[in-house]
Amino acid sequence: MRDADKDGYVDWSDYQELLDRYFSTLDLGKNDPRAGGIHAFYQMYWQELLRHAQPSRQRLSKDEFVEANRRASIDTSRLNIIAGCGHAIFDCMDLDDDNEVSKEEFENFLKTVWDTSQPDATEIFHKIDLDDDNSISRQEFIRAAHEFFYSNDRNSPGSLFFGYV
Predict the structure, then answer these.
(1) What gap in Å lies between CA 15 and CA 48, rounded to an integer?
(2) Residue 87 neighbours by CB distance under 10 Å
(3) pLDDT of 34
(4) Distance between CA atoms of 29 and 118, rounded to whole angstroms?
(5) What would the pLDDT profile of 94-127 be if each residue is shown by its tens digit?
(6) Strands, E, within the chain: which ranges?
(7) What are the per-10-residue average pLDDT scores of the chain (165 residues)?
(8) Which CATH architecture has domain 9-162?
(9) How many CB atoms lie within 10 A of CB 138?
């Protein structure tokens, strides 16, 4: 759950704060396609969470967030949040646009955007890099996104990257 202001609820302002960190720390200009992609993804994701919240509201408690997230992840009638999430975040991490995320790109992203320490970033990187080639392919990262949404394993690469709710 992305509760940036620690008020016990998630609302759009929590995602806007995250987007602001994407834009400033990764130096994504307004015309950068990655900025548009990540912004569009989070807007659609938030709308899907609200659509699946019962009853519909503009902020969600942790339990409401978990349930709305579960419902949104299995309902692909409008937005496949799993693929959308993986691709949009991967594009932001892949700063040199070579369709791979190096260890340096990964650690930089986790440090600057998600405020994760380097030892944790290194461990997570190696768990997502399934073929041990010292880079994370788009396919490996999308797999981690799938694990986050569908696995109950707190130690899965996806749960280590995205967090466990």
Answers:
(1) 14
(2) 18
(3) 92
(4) 26
(5) 999 999 999 999 999 988 898 777 678 888 899 9
(6) 9-11, 59-61, 100-102, 135-137
(7) 87 94 88 92 93 85 91 84 89 94 93 80 91 96 89 83 71
(8) Orthogonal Bundle (1.10)
(9) 15
Q: What is the 3-state secondary structure (H, E, C) of 124-158?
A: HHHHHCCCCCCEEEHHHHHHHHHHHHHCCCCCCHH
Cβ neighbours, 10 Å, residue 124: 22
Distance CA 63, CA 83 (A): 23
| Backbone Cα Rg of the chain | 15
What are the C-alpha distances in Å from 141 to residues 100, 126, 128, 135?
Answer: 10, 12, 7, 10
Domain ranges of the chain: 9-162
Residue with the two structure tokens 């986050």: 148
Nearest Cα neighbor of 127 from 152, 149, 154 is 154
Q: What is the pTM of this model?
A: 0.86
Tokens representing 51?
A: 């659509």
Residue 161 near residue 128 (C-beta atoms within 8 A): yes
According to the model, what pLDDT value does residue 165 have?
Answer: 55
Q: What is the DSSP letter of 75?
A: -
